[in-house]
Amino acid sequence: MFTKILIANRGEIACRVIKTARKMGIATVAVYSDADRDAVHVEMADEAVHIGPSPAAQSYLVPEKIIAACKETGAQAVHPGYGFLSERAAFCETLEKEGIVFIGPKPKAIKAMGDKIESKKFANAAKVSTVPGWLGVIENADHAEQIAGEIGYPVMIKASAGGGGKGMRIAWNQSEVRDGFDRARSEAKSSFGDDRVFIEKFVVDPRHIEIQVLADAHGNALYLGERECSIQRRNQKVAEEAPSPFLDAKTRKAMGEQSVALARAVDYQSAGTVEFIVDKDKNFYFLEMNTRLQVEHPVTELVTGIDLVEQMIRVAAGEKLALKQSDIKLNGWAVESRLYAEDPHRNFLPSIGRLTRYRPPEEGQFGDVIIRNDTGVTEGSEISMFYDPMLAKLCTWAPTRIEAIDAMSEALDSFVVDGIEHNIPFLAALMQHPRWREGAISTGFIAEEYPDGFAPVVPNSEEKAVLTSIVTAVELLRRDRLDRLGGRLAPHSGALKRDWVVKLGDDYLQASILEGMISIPMEIDLSIDGGKALTVSSDWRPGDLIWRGTVGKRSVVAQIRPVANGLRIAWKGMSVTARAMLPRIAELERLMPEKVAPDTSKLLLCPMPGLVVSIAVTEGQEVKAGETLAVVEAMKMENVLRAERDLVVSKLNAKPGDSLAVDAVIMEFA
After folding, report:
1. Where are any strands of DSSP class E within 51-201?
2. What is the CA radius of gyration of the chain?
3. Which domain holds residue 421?
4. pLDDT reading at 126 higher than 80
5. pLDDT band at 494 (very low <50, low <70, confident <90, very high)
6. Any keyword Nucleotide-binding (predicted)?
7. Fewer C-beta within 10 Å: the chain N or C terminus?
8. Residues 508 and 554 in one domain
9. Beta strands per DSSP E along 84-161
10. pLDDT by residue (tens digit) across 390-419?
11. How far is CA 630 from CA 358, 567, 606, 627, in A?
């Protein structure tokens, strides 16, 4: 067994590998760029080596720097994590020449399966069911249009060396093929250094289901069940679960056996994933094989009890698998939510900045529930534009699917992140969505359910009563605390007021205290808008960010943040500004004029912090609705900004190469 390994990666996956290596008694070496000098993985590792500037192309993607770090520290093996150099056969070959072990498959398997075009040719030859498509090299946009027409729309344009949703576009008609082809090639070139793309038929309403395989160098191979990865945005997975609520035992077995056969055919040696798209009739088609550890591997670990990173290390060290197929049992249900630094209210655009607060829920087993959080950041970490926007992978396990989802819902409600925008509100709303809870999902779920983008969930009458009760309880404690401050001329509140008005968003609700005293812990009976009594109990204290308690028979975990003249409550995807007032103050408050938002209809604002890739117009140019105005890149994704209406460009305020902040004015219109 190795005594020291180097992790050629960063962020949460580097931290994840370090945890297992530490458990196995193996010393670890971290590598870091300028942007990651103070990163968590650098602090966790036994040693750390600086490998260059912030851009990945000058640090994490330079094999020579990784090898130099191995030689400097005496690391015997390299774990690549995912992304970066994890599927570069040439990197593996170079490591072998230097006498350094690659903790992953052999170059042969990476070459056969790591290239999407070659992998499909290989799968076809091995009689694996594949999606109809064109596997040859596509020279230009004209050729792409011809091929798409022959296959039939819609089609998927994908980077051959791609991954993580990069270099991928769907074209629904001829007009979208050319632009999709150009954008996919551009993203592929910048992300992977390889601009080859291919085209295949896009299966409508598919599920994305993948099989985890594990194989050693002694001819042993097995599958560890499946993961449902259908909740995707821009082809990027957002939430995963294991097992899939859609598969039956027969289909699971068929997919698993086919995956193992494919792994054996390429002499696969390590953990790997065979991805399929599955239609409504449970027909499955080979999509690709990822010759590395998947981002979503924790849900498989939770339902099988097998540490995949440990197995990868043991296989790389030459050990035989200690498991047989008959040993693999799927126990309970696991759900994973990917926390991204992106603004769900602005079409999920990237967000960067410093984490002024980062307080995940407590990890461990709590009754029948397990909570796990794989992360690579901490409070104070800087989220930069150079890398993937993922902050953490929050996972829950429970005996049943609904219990795991409910545990995830509560864990998300108690996950505090401030300083940047993030997608926790969307994930919290997802856990309450009927289609998700029923398992009636597809890869088009987000586009179908949120066609106009995500907006906070609107509370129903029962939920309004819960929120109003919390606001009232918080206000009572706040006023009581003020009354107890020393040096005040007179009590602020006086005797306990029984009648209150709570402004919840734009609604005004009456809250009446029926029974109880102000104390910590608190237990009072409230009536909301004359309804039946609700007992509100909690040990919340002023200043706490999380309100935990019960309202009636309902257990509630909500986040509370002070805002001007009130507070903001986030709960189950709802986000409301609220204020508790005495009736007379509420009467006067209703008379206050509303602030009118400024007119920005004649400005093109940068929707997120990013780099201007190109400006497609000139001053004085007439532009039609739908035409491209500019392309802005952030966190390795190119975002095309188009005209929403016919207009004339009057002034350009930015040029290619400029780094812009969110809402910076790119151009003005007449």
Report:
1. 77-79, 101-102, 133-134, 155-159, 168-171, 197-201
2. 27
3. 332-455
4. no
5. low
6. yes
7. C
8. yes
9. 101-102, 133-134, 155-159
10. 999 999 999 999 999 999 999 999 999 999
11. 34, 38, 10, 9
Residue 663, in any domain of the structure: yes
Predicted pLDDT at 132: 79
The rounded distance, in Å, linking the Cα atoms of 253 and 247 is: 10
Please confirm, yes or no, whether 288 is among the known catalytic residues: yes
Q: Which two tokens stand for residue 290?
A: 């990822």
Give the Cα separation of 331 and 417 in Å (integer). Answer: 32
Tokens read off for 360 = 């995940």
| DSSP per position, 531-574 | ---EEEEE---TT-SEEEEEETTEEEEEEEEEETTEEEEEETTE
Exactly one of 241, 288, 410, 633 is catalytic; name it. 288
Mark whether 473 and 547 lie in a shared domain.
yes
**Measured distance between the N- and C-terminal CA atoms of the chain, rounded to whole angstroms:** 69
| pLDDT, mean of residues 41-48 | 98
Farthest-apart Cα atoms in the chain, separation: 87
User: What number is the average pLDDT over the span 433-442?
Assistant: 97
CATH of the domain at 179: 3.30.1490.20
Cα–Cα distance between 219 and 328 in angstroms, integer?
Answer: 18
Output the CA–CA distances (angstroms, integers) from residue 618 to 15, 606, 622, 633, 652, in the order listed: 47, 17, 9, 20, 7
- What the block records as the tokens of 333 is 């249900």
From the list 510, 519, 497, the residue with the least C-alpha distance to 536 is 519
Cα–Cα distance, 79 to 69 (Å, whole number): 13
Q: Clarify whether residues 222 and 99 are in a common domain.
A: no
Are residues 475 and 584 both part of a single domain? yes
pLDDT at residue 307, as a whole number: 98
pLDDT band at residue 367 under the 50/70/90 scheme: very high
